[in-house]
Amino acid sequence: MSDLDRYLQAATRDNTRRSYRAAIEHFEVTWGGFLPATSDSVARYLVAHAGVLSINTLKLRLSALAQWHNSQGFADPTKAPVVRKVFKGIRALHPAREKQAEPLQLQHLEHVIAYLALEAEQALAGHDQPRLLRARRDTALILLGFWRGFRSDELCRLEVEQVQAVAGAGITLYLPRSKSDREYQGKTYQTPALARLCPVQAYIEWINAAALVRGPVFRSIDRWGNLGDEPLHANSVIPLLRQALSRAGIAAEHYTSHSLRRGFATWAHRSGWDLKSLMSYVGWKDMKSAMRYIEASPFVGMTQLSERSVGD
User: Fold this and answer.
1) Dihedral pair phi/psi, residue 53, rounded to 5°
2) Bridge-partner residues for 190, per DSSP?
3) Co-location of 61 and 13 in the same domain
4) pTM score
């Protein structure tokens, strides 16, 4: 790969590239379209999938087609008036309430972490290293994901060299890029230690148990307790979370990796955080994005986790 290709590839997120490839394959192979496409064929493609695919999925398909045509030097058919009008009509006739992940409530967070602690104790007593590693990893991932409001891809992108954790004090995490960091400037995140459900202590216990000194923080663990060299894939966070919740006796089918982010936002909102502070802490750029994650409730001021509060 040339330096030019390497930089061009780096400008697009891995998830976006995969989604675009799948969209182009769907247009060409599944539906039978031809590339380069005409505006008429794109409009017919939209009509064929109206009411079947969500508005967001159709929007992604149009973005993929636009990107393919622009990269290949062809005129973009998705900008044609007929395509825009058809898409507008689909939105009018097929309105859909956006599906959101169930927020992980504090009581469920407490329950699953207590169960993982029990698993770790039993693993230590039974000298079961694979089970111990999984319990330590899952605890650290869930607590960091919740208290830092990280997306699954951000959790999977953490590197040991870019994390500094001090027991009883706090943790500093650096991410060179994220979804909200469009300019790739990198961002440093901080979270204090807590009296209970502490993400700092959970991180230290995982790193020590796994003897990690460099590379990805969160990795796969095989049945013999061997750690993978590559980071967990972002899509693997959902089954990992659901499995942990299920083992703890919590119905998990409505939870996704976004449940951690929504859970924290809901907790902070009910605990009296103002929206500006919440946006700054999590990294939202606009109020609309923040409000999508906050679970409305008539109750404000939940029982406080500890004498310490989470803050910048």
Assistant:
1) -95, 150
2) 172
3) yes
4) 0.70
For 118-177, how does the pLDDT look when each residue is reduced to its tens digit (9 = 90+)?
A: 999 999 999 999 999 999 999 999 999 999 999 899 999 999 999 999 999 999 999 987
Mean pLDDT of 53-68: 92
Chain position carrying tokens 């992604």? 60
Which residue range forms the structural domain that includes residue 41? Answer: 3-93
- Shared domain for 119 and 24, answered yes or no, is no
55 and 21 part of one domain = yes
Closest residue by Cα to residue 158 from 137, 136, 133:
137
Pair (86, 151) in one structural domain: no
Q: 203: pLDDT confidence band, cut at 50, 70 and 90?
A: very high
Q: Where are the alpha helices (DSSP H) in the chain?
A: 3-10, 14-25, 39-49, 55-71, 81-93, 106-125, 129-148, 152-157, 199-210, 237-247, 258-270, 275-282, 287-293
306 lies in a domain? no
The number of distinct structural domains making up the chain is: 2
